[in-house]
Amino acid sequence: MVALVTSIVVSALMSVGIFWYARRRPVGTPLTWGEAMAGAAYVFFLSFLAYGVVPHQWLTLAENELSWRADRIVFGPGNILQPISQGGWFPFDITYRTISDSIAVAIYGVALGLHIWMWVKWQNRDKEAEARTQAALDRTSSFGRPLIKQG
């Protein structure tokens, strides 16, 4: 449990670090070789955590500590999901391993969605900065004068 929570927290903090860096880095600044290598290593490690470590830690937790094995069948509340093979009405067996694997697939889906969203935010950071600047320029005092000196 500790390893899963730690990997999720480290992934989240690294993702926040990308947004912190995106606000500090001027748009259009040339990228040096060292910055490119550091950025590539950072994104690789974040991807390794999100797509490798977090799902692995979840599957390890489910298999070992929660005992969600393939031989345990989900019956649901009040045995509503009791399969035909066990004397119930439900047409197929649902095992705990199936549920843990489905949660792992959901982890991959969430990671991929957040990954794409972060790419979009990084690519559009100049538009967001421009919108913030324009909003600041449009603000006026109670006397009708602009609060920021223009050009």
Calculate the mean pLDDT score and round it.
88
Count the E strands. Answer: 0
Number of separate domains? 1
Portion in strands: under 5%
Runs in which pLDDT lies below 50 for 5 or more consecutive residues are: none
- Number of DSSP helices? 4
- Topology pattern, helix = H, strand = E: HHHH
Summarize the structure.
The chain is mainly α and 151 residues long. The chain is built from four helices and no strands.
Itemize the secondary structure elements and their pairings:
Layout: H1 2-24, H2 33-65, H3 96-123, H4 125-138
Helix pairs in contact: 1-2, 2-3
What does this structure look like?
The protein is mainly alpha-helical and 151 residues long. It has one domain. It is built from 4 helices and no strands. α1 packs antiparallel against α2. The termini are far apart.
What keyword list fits this structure?
single chain; mainly alpha; elongated
